[in-house]
Amino acid sequence: MQTLKPHIDRHYRTLPDRLHTGVAGSSMGGLIALYAALKYPDVFGRVGVFSPALWVAPEIYAAARRAHPRPGTRIYIVTGGQEGDTPAVYVRDQQRMVDTLRAAGFTIGGGGGGDVRATVRPDGKHAEWFWRREFPAAYEWLFQDAPAWTRGGGGVCYEVFVRSFYDSNGDGIGDLNGLIAKLDYIAKLGASCIWLMPVAVSPSYHGYDVSDYYRVEPAYGTNEDFKRLVTEAHRRGIAVLVDMVLNHASSEHPSFQAALHDTTSPYRAWYRFSPTSLGKGPWGADAWHRSPVRDEYYYGVFWSGMPDLNYETPAVRDEAKQIATFWLRDMDVDGFRLDAVPYLIEEGSCLMGCPGTHAFLHEYAAHVRSVKPDAYTVGEVWGNIDAVMPYYPDQLTSYFGFELADSLLAAVRTGSATGVLSGFLRLQDTLPPYRWSPFLSNHDGTRSMTVLRGNTARAKLAATLLLTLPGLPFVYYGEEIGMTGDKPDPRLRTPMQWSPRPGLGFTSGTAWESAQPDSLTTTVAAQDTNPGSLLNLYRRLIHLRRENEALGTGRLLSLSASSPQVVAYLRRAGDHAVLVVANLGATSVSRLAVASLDSVLPPGTYSTRNLLGGSPGAALRVSRDGRVRGYLPVTGRIGPRRSLILDLQR
Q1: In 55-175, where does DSSP find H-type helix?
Q2: Can 312 be counted among the known catalytic residues?
Q3: Of 134, 334, 339, 346, catalytic
Q4: E strand or H helix at 405
Q5: How many separate domains does the chain show?
Q6: Tens of pLDDT, residues 11-24
Q7: Residue 339 catalytic?
Q8: What is the pTM of this model?
Q9: 483: domain range?
Q10: Quick check: is 304 in a domain?
Q11: Dihedral sign, Cα of residue 385, residue 388, residue 394, residue 397
């Protein structure tokens, strides 16, 4: 207390109060963590106690009797049912501690409430794998208040490009009133959230160079139209996230124009100017652009029309927070998708992911939470999981899983299951599922159907994997019907294909961008009533995710398969489990067997129910050690690029 905590406060502290200060440990460390929290309640408002060796120091019970509950305190205790040589002692001692804390005035909660949450996991052992497995759930309960729409694991977010979704007035440009008209379609799909690409005033069709952060793009409608959209979305249980472009503004933004034309303007410090070009940007392209006004250069990492904002200037930081407040409070959005966050601050030769960027994201996220405590923020950090991890744990809520998207599409494209689950397993052991966001494609990359060469069976496999694996998935508009698209960027963002007629049911006029070649055959109308369509598979999977506890919140458990082209896994929540088996290959697999290396289920015999309809699978027998051995989910063959989702009932 006299040495370590002051060091942490000085070098790492971002939120100084006791409710954001925790201590955790396992075994003897669990005992020490609990003692520290009881002895120093003014310091530690959060404590995680894993497999505590309470029998080592019985005086811990006296400390608990003397303790007085403080407002907001949370104590998370978890013990395994197979702890060491005397598991009954660990379980007994945990219950004695819970009873002691209750007698001292602490409230005991089973679900989300109470000062103390205590759990016994029947399969838990006195081992690092068990503590690592339990940490994300403990961290989520101790420190995070997940937005309501993400709870239960059923949250799925649908990305919409307003310009391309539905045109209500015949001018060829999608608009907010058009989106309102199509909210029932999104609700029927099962999405609990929509992410809108930029909707603020911009000189560009895509909106990522904003010239007025406080006003909706006139081609889309008015601020009042936007408020009506939010009201209608909320009425259907759909949260609304908007794209927030923090890294740069438009070269037409009044602040940049003032800085460009007047070297004494206070806005001069909002941007970075230099008498000479100072070199390339983070990926080797020219990032210093010659001023059209005088002999000087300004920094814009993406292009000359997007000058980077200078977040070393306090006024810029304040303005970013004021903009966030406006959208959260005045426009009532539920959060933001943050564009290009690694590039916010440059420090010397460091051009991306610099310390200053992380510090500002801490500051920005804290402000967002102060305005709307349950706001959700998801950041764009291109790269693998290692590149994303420095942005956790207390900056934005979530980040997109680019590595996960690559692994899913590669597995389906190549027909090989090797490594497809590794990223999901790693993130599951690190973070609560609502804090990472898998996807297949988005507005910046080749559409998944194009990557999969127009093969609907492959697209169904990709959807099945995405929507039966953990995380909070995002679906790009049109992906659910198999829309195609490749670079350049406008061809990734073509109008939604509603029906096979002129204007595609998108507009009664001439669309802002021409349609894809398959636009008259790949439509919502063609798939809406076809039970075997890609659209109806998305609908079933999203609704299953919301309704089935194991698919929504269950732990991912990898299984081995007798064929390298088959991926098999369980999603388990308590005694409830779902088995997913997917043949990624172009050939059938005969007598497919799956197995587990470790204990994955309580022993017994399980009947199976096919959640996508069709014949049930064979009964599953789990041995006394909880392992699955040589289980054949189907008799005969599993067809090429086919999958099974089996609900297991003991």
Answers
A1: 60-66, 87-103, 128-143, 162-165
A2: no
A3: 339
A4: helix 402-414
A5: 4
A6: 555 556 777 788 99
A7: yes
A8: 0.88
A9: 152-247+309-545
A10: no
A11: negative
